[in-house]
From TrEMBL:
Record bears the keyword Membrane: no
Cofactor list: FMN
SUPFAM superfamilies with a match to the protein in the record: Flavoproteins
PROSITE patterns to which the protein is assigned, alphabetical: FLAVODOXIN, FLAVODOXIN_LIKE
InterPro entries: Flavodoxin/NO_synth, Flavodoxin_CS, Flavodoxin_dom, Flavoprotein-like_sf, Protoporphyrinogen_IX_DH
Residue ranges of the TM segments: none
Keyword terms: Flavoprotein, FMN
UniProt-listed Gene3D superfamilies: 3.40.50.360
The protein's name in its UniProt record: Flavodoxin domain-containing protein
Any Pfam family: Flavodoxin_5
Residues in Flavodoxin-like domain copies: 3-144
Highest taxon above the source species: Bacteria
Amino acid sequence: MRMLIVYGTGEGQTRKIAEVLARQCREVGHDADLYQGDALPRGLALTPYAGVLVGASVHMARHQPYIRRFIQRYLEELRARPCAFFSVSAAAASPDPESQAQVRELVTAFLAEEGWQPGQWAAFAGAVPYTRYGRLKRWMMRQILRRAGGPTDTSRDWEFTDWEAVRLFGEQFLQAVSRQRAGRMDVASG
Ligand SMILES: Cc1cc2nc3c(=O)[nH]c(=O)nc-3n(C[C@H](O)[C@H](O)[C@H](O)COP(=O)(O)O)c2cc1C
């Protein structure tokens, strides 16, 4: 089967997660097409895809507008097949229940605004690549992380992503696609 993975990213962590999910799809014998949401092939149609994964990262409390536009444009086609959405943020790394609740609220509000209810969604902890930020961004992110009780050593990069959670998310998605396919075959033969 063929899977589509579309992601939004600022510094590349969501791309890295999307690549891991694409590899997971391929390891079990599927084809997987991976695109950044602001560089989609012209005239992309979702018809060939058995399932779609959509990812976006959080910058200044919002997901990439080009991912929002992707969802708006393909809403009907997304609704017609198994889909999963993943959000990537620094706040998702926090064990604080209030931060966790805020992350949930951010993601559910985003999906509700677009009227999209993917079969599953997850909020993954991202990364803070201090050494790749310019001075202002580094300073700002350090303030934010200090307040959140996160790491403030800007001489190195920090990755918080729970790769086991990503793998489980990928597995659940692949199971949903298989279930859908099995249901279709039942209908066809019954
Ligand atoms: C300018 C900027 C703004 C950010 N704003 C937020 C934010 O509002 N909430 C949050 O939880 N994380 C925030 N982050 C952290 C990112 O979500 C985190 O670094 C994530 O891994 C980014 O993924 P990406 O590299 O795919 O864009 C911000 C990061 C940057 C650089």
